[in-house]
Predict the structure.
Amino acid sequence: MPLVRIEHDGPITTIIIDRPEARNAMSPETADALCEAFHAFEADDNASVAVLYGDHDVFCAGWDLKHAAKTGAELELDKMNYPCDLSTPPRGGLGPTRMELSKPVIAAISGPAVAGGFELALWTDIRVMEEQAYMGVFCRRWGVPLMDGGTVRLPRVVGMGRALEIIMTGRKVPAQECLQLGLCEKLVPRGESRAAAEALAREIARFPQACVRADRKSVYMQRGLTERDALMREWYNAIAALKEDGIKGAARFAEEGKGRHGDFSDEIF
């Protein structure tokens, strides 16, 4: 049985972690397979949005500590070290957490997204959680630090103080609190996260994609910049998308009234 399954539905790619015997914990082989899946998604001209889902009522329980204890983690850590040449960062312990994609990824979270699984969820653009799901830095109890972007991304999502409290206590963060803190964007009943995430993906995929990707990129690019520098980058980043999508969209509006009065029906795009 594959550790990672890939399913396609038009422009939507659903990538599924499938390692139930380890609660979808990430072994080196699983991390490699997950990276390969996202590289294929990025390279696929027909794929617009990806959904990342953990099967068997678990998103991801983090790095496979049993594997690390059995084989020793030194060789695996060496593989994840940053080389002098940073043009292509090595994969993270949780797989794609160091990848910078040009396309959106939505996490569908059923059950625990903890330790490195929490970091994997934070790597995605949007998170849909089931009501019984939860997050947390559960690796705190074993002395395993965050190494897949948790200390970088969590403060950017919830702020410094809240991030430090969640990181240092290692406590469970239930789905309702995740919604309140901005750790997820949508709550759904048990068993519905994948369908809800795929529906959201289809909503995004129906728009002109050059524009979607340019705006997404601009949101990430402005971090750490002054307002003036961020505005300048936004402008230059948007030009190509405007030429590719925006001029044609303006013509559809001017000639046929497409999109008038907030009409978001599928056929207008």
Remarks:
- Strands lie at 4-9, 12-17, 49-54, 105-109, 112-114, 126-130, 134-136, 173-174, 186-188.
- The mean pLDDT is 90.
- Residues 4-205 form a domain with the 2-enoyl-CoA Hydratase; Chain A, domain 1 fold (CATH 3.90.226.10).
- The radius of gyration is 19 Å.
